[in-house]
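Worked Example 4.2. Consider the chain below.
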Amino acid sequence: MLPFDSNRSPLPPRPLLPPRDLGAIPGRAPTAASRPSRAAGPVYRGLPKLLRFALWVALAIVAGGVLGATAPTALRRLGAVAALQPGLLAWYTVRALGFLAYLVVAGSVVYGLLLSTKILDAIAHRPVSFALHKDLAIVGLVLAMLHAVVLLADQSFAFTPRAILVPFASPYASTWVGIGQLTFYGLAVLTASFYVRRQIGQRAWRLLHYLTFLTFIGATAHGIMSGSDSGANWAFWVYLVPGAAAVFLLTYRIVVSISARLSRSESERSAAPAAIEPLTLRSPGGRVPSGRPAAPFEPPFVGPIFD
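Applying the procedure from the previous section yields the following structure tokens:
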């Protein structure tokens, strides 16, 4: 039966209200239905187990092949050097540590570019990838520090603590060694920034990380111009492969960023409402009923038009 008011006229039925969302009530946590959905992006899926097993097997085969082909010769030559010229052991160690430091630093740079382009998000958790990126930077810094410290034991050149710590004070290739020293200090700043990221803020940390490209260029220039093995064929590939990978990923990141910015501006421009010009009703003689000329923003006149 419909309710009646005082005049005995039937009242319309009250519409049913949808159930209230408890997440909208102040003081309550938003429910799952009221939370805004996250932006679409790569979703972590991981590699299939069979593919992961095959990759680990392939990596073990490659590492075992490289060690099996080079380790006997390297150990034999190191034994000969230790027997005839023990002072050169430090020089060989310096060279080996230099190449290891460069490869690890290059790996950190390439991995950071893979993170920024979000290429790895589908096969690796981002926190794990970020931790690996940081660990590679730390290992590269330690290897670079050992590369410099072992120079104190090298008898080929008279390296002193001052020559190692002060840029461009080296007795050997002072310009290019000085660039390597500045690269080491830049790498130290970048590695320390991982631990003060919350204090300096995400924006400042990202701006500081643009220094990564300068450190990578400096490390490459230092290795090529001051390294005694730069003319070897294998050294050419050691520098070419990481450098080409870094250039490709940096170019890809710039192109994707510009494309996303242009598409966003186009969507905003198309979503903007078109400007509506004000309309003015005029009489056939161009006058309003009062007889005065119509103003440019005259409100619409409703009623008969007198000429």
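The chain has nine helices and no strands. The radius of gyration is 35 Å. Compare this with Example 4.1 before moving on.
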